[in-house]
Write a structure and sequence with these properties.
Layout lengths: L5 H21 L27 H16 L9 H16 L7 H5 L5
Length: 111
Amino acid sequence: MYQPSEMAGFMKAMYAYNLQLKQQIIAGETPIAMPLDLMTLHSAEMTKGKGRTETWHSFVNVFIESQQTITDTLSNVQLKTRFNNAITNCLSCHKTECTGPIPKIKKLLIQ
């Protein structure tokens, strides 16, 4: 039976969280907390055969920062823009590191 890696499980949780954020933003609500420990990205067991490459390392901190800005209530940048920037950062990394979920991630973008 398939056992997802710790990283795969965390990515699924990130997707679910971002889907919830998208729905909140569309409903006009302002998210105020990040329930996931994004530092887990640095330590979670990777899927077998995958590793933390130099490219991966170049993306991870940018992604973490962009994800955290979504709940920044003092930001002058529109919430929808901050959210889409975070999702675009997901896509940028996945274009080089793990391409499978790209169609699913694209659905998170708010038009």
